[in-house]
Design brief:
6 helices; 20% strand; alpha/beta; 164 residues; Rossmann fold; 41% helix
């Protein structure tokens, strides 16, 4: 079985992401969880923090590599020799966007295949944006993110305003 690329911002990693990683490992020998670096966004967690949180959440499983990239994902996949991208679908609205993205990626790199996996029923409503918003307002996101990410969120949002 090939190596698959699971790209995303993972800011923060949610239990939905973690479920996809665990289920993806049933289909692929290895997964490269690739953190997309977008200079137009201001992430809550740095790339290094996200790498650390993901590795901790997967218990440093040797089948999971965590990397980062900027620019086009198809170019990153080409550089790494990866032919399969794993993407999660939560709802019909995700499908439209992911369908467009997969077809654009195929146009840019016809050798790149996209495999869609439905998010588990327990996590279909979770997004990183929603988790950040709830946590930033003092809401409890227990059960929505791995324990180590929950602690990271508490630390980030406990810091006085203007403190990195």
């Amino acid at each position: 079985m090939p190596v698959a690329l699971y790209p995303g911002s993972f800011d923060p990693l949610t239990n939905g992401h973690l479920s996809l990683i665990q289920r993806g490992l049933k289909m692929f020998d290895r997964l490269i969880v690739a953190i997309a670096v977008n200079p137009k966004k201001s992430p809550l967690f740095s790339v290094d923090e996200r790498k650390k949180l993901i590795l901790e959440a997967v218990a440093n499983d040797p089948r999971v590599e965590v990397d980062d990239f900027s620019g086009l994902m198809v170019e990153y996949a080409k550089r790494r020799g990866i032919a399969v991208v794993l993407r999660g679908l939560r709802a019909v609205s995700d499908f439209e966007y992911e369908f467009q993205l997969a077809n654009m990626n195929r146009k840019l790199n016809p050798a790149l295949e996209t495999v869609f996996m439905m998010t588990g029923e327990d996590y279909f409503y979770i997004s990183s944006n929603l988790v950040r918003e709830v946590a930033s307002l003092g809401g409890d996101v227990t059960g929505l993110v791995p324990t180590n990410v929950l602690e990271g969120l508490k630390t980030k949002y406990a810091a006085p305003k203007g403190t990195p």
